[in-house]
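Predict both folds.
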Amino acid sequence: MFIKNQSFKDEETLLEQLFDFSLGKPSTAVQHMISEIDKEVSANEAFQKYRATLTDEEDILELDAEERNIRLGEQLMEIYSSFLVSDNKLFGVKDDEQIFLYELDLY
């Protein structure tokens, strides 16, 4: 999806934006969330068993990224009432305050 200045509240758009912004630099808070998600996924036996059935490295990387983004999206949806993309940055909005989540350098 092309990253453009926009405000949104839905999880589907958030997941699309997380996919795009995962190429960029996350905030410290998001880095911490990702680290915790990675630990949870590593400990999830069912997920690891399914992951082991995949033979293509690209499929494995895609599965890992998708699972991470889904879990991250769920957590962010619980914290923020809406989200904003502005100047190649993703913000969570809570109580009318914009909290920096990700930055993507397109230059």
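Second protein follows, with its predicted structure tokens after the sequence.
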Amino acid sequence: MDNNTSFNSTIYSYDKTKVGKRIARSTDRSVYKYGENEVIKFSFLVFFVKKIRNKMLNDYTTCKKYLKDYLVITTDVSNPLRREHIEIQPFIQGEIFSLKHTKDPKLRIQLKEIVDISEKIINDGYKEVDLVGHGGMFTLCLSNILVDKQGKLNIVDITFLETRSLGFVGYFIAPFIPIIKARQKYIINRFLN
């Protein structure tokens, strides 16, 4: 897949025989190896909240314009006639961005650039980008960012920290957004200062 490719939502199938072992799990998704060089992500909340798929597609498309050098190419293989959200991405061999990575000046520069771009996104009228992810709520890391073996930061999950686009269900999630934002701010400040 080419790094300049935008979100592809025209493929509505995937090869079930290529789905391997589960390698990660978050609040909403399970991630499996997919063939040799890719991963496949299955959302389970979309079964209950159909609007999640549209939110993920829209958030990705918007963030790709700003964070194209860091955002991992994502192909949507969901069938729009079903309640599903399934994505395929290149497999990034690396580690979740954590405190130990802040000792590397090149990684700190990249993180600072991501943070600066995220602030520009807010200044342009969008909501805050979720970098902390599920894992960062429980450990000192930004779990939506992986450090690959070449020392490059890769954003593997992207969404805005907002719930209005989810309709009625968003009201149940909204109380958690300030907590997520505060945690993210704390981790970023700790990593960059």
